[in-house]
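[agent] plan:
  1. take the single chain provided in the ticket
  2. run structure prediction with default settings
  3. attach structure tokens to the ticket
  4. add a short note for the reviewer (M.T.)
[agent] executing step 1
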Amino acid sequence: MHPRWWPRGDKVSEQSPNRITRIFEEHRQANTKALMPFVVGGHPTPDSLPSLLKAMDGAGADIIEIGFPFSDPIADGPVIAAAMHEALQNKVTPGKILESISAVRPHINAGLVAMLSVSIADRLGRASFLDRAKAAGLDGVILPDLDPEEAPEVANLCDQRELALGLLVGPATTGPRLATILSSCRGFVYLLARAGITGESDQAPEVEARVAELRSLTQLPVACGFGIGSASQVEAVTQHADAAIVGSALVRRLQDAADPAACASDFVQELSAGLGQPEA
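[agent] step 2 finished; step 3 output follows
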């Protein structure tokens, strides 16, 4: 488990840099890498999010992604799609998720990032949604279906609120589209380790060349997701990327867990074994 250099949620002042930026900078200085587990808000039960966030924070998660349920999941494989469907069936709403985040934010250190379809933000208006996200204690958003042409405007909205903005870079994204995405990211870049949909894989994704390419184009940290589900895969990916994102493997374990919080804590600790240790 990494030592925590950044303050608890109730200790972040208006003048502080964005928490996501701080987390990655501290890891850079210590020559260590970050772990970013993903859970679906309202899964496995409608009220489980606060206990899951506390458990993963206590187990050493650096940044936690919270998926907002959507009826047409974007690039999500069957495990996450089923979890989102179940949450929607249980009438979990964006407002309820934000309330859960607000309740737990003062008690945890981890960065919190919402992953949601831009259409969810559009229902309230993008600026209004980001205001609510900031007020609830979120540190950033990931918008997997944001049109790159609209990304600079959203980046400006995030800048005004000191929110990170993670945009997805696919294995084959190149040229002007890639340049626009990278210039609009704030805090980190979300690299898809492979094409297709989310889900577990027996093999660690090959990301060395792609990460090297991105490093030649941006100074932002690179977080890598899709197909990462074990400590050995975390280790393989973070030989090159700055963070490993683990989603389907965790969501699958939570589905039938007798004690979801304990399950999440145990799995985060297991995954953390794949991360390097701070230098003395």
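[agent] step 4 note for reviewer: The longest helix spans residues 260-272.
[agent] ticket updated
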